[in-house]
């Protein structure tokens, strides 16, 4: 069994420090905020390479919702989710929580 975590307020803010901390306390995977992943992809890749802690999934990080009744917001959400999934693919992630 592998144990992962989602971000918590008491984790370090800096992404590399956060990943070092996760490794130190024994986590084996990280569920990242999707927008953070898209906006900081290179930093996240470096943190993964340094620590070996994989980003397994993303949660949130999109402003629209795929089931929104307002078409503009639904389409915006779908575009943001697409960007998150593309970034996840680059780091070996498996999926997104919606």
Main traits of this protein?
TIM Barrel, 4 strands, 98 residues, alpha/beta, four-stranded parallel β-sheet
Question: Care to give the gist of this entry?
Answer:
This protein has 98 residues and is α/β, with parallel strands linked by helices. The chain is 50% helix and 16% strand.
Give me the secondary-structure topology.
Elements: E1 4-6, H1 15-25, E2 29-33, H2 34-39, H3 41-51, E3 55-59, H4 71-91, E4 95-97
Parallel strand pairs: 1-2, 2-3, 3-4
Helix pairs in contact: 1-3
Structure description:
By secondary structure, the protein is α/β, with parallel strands linked by helices. It has one domain (4-97): Divalent-metal-dependent TIM barrel enzymes (TIM Barrel, Alpha-Beta Barrel), CATH 3.20.20.150. The protein is 50% helix and 16% strand. It is built from four helices and four strands, in the order βαβααβαβ. It has helices at residues 15-25, 34-39, 41-51, 71-91, and strands at 4-6, 29-33, 55-59, 95-97. The protein has a four-stranded parallel beta sheet. α4 links the parallel β3 and β4. α1 packs parallel to α3 (41-51). It is elongated and about 45 Å long. It starts with a strand and ends with a strand. The relative contact order is 0.19. The mean pLDDT is 93.
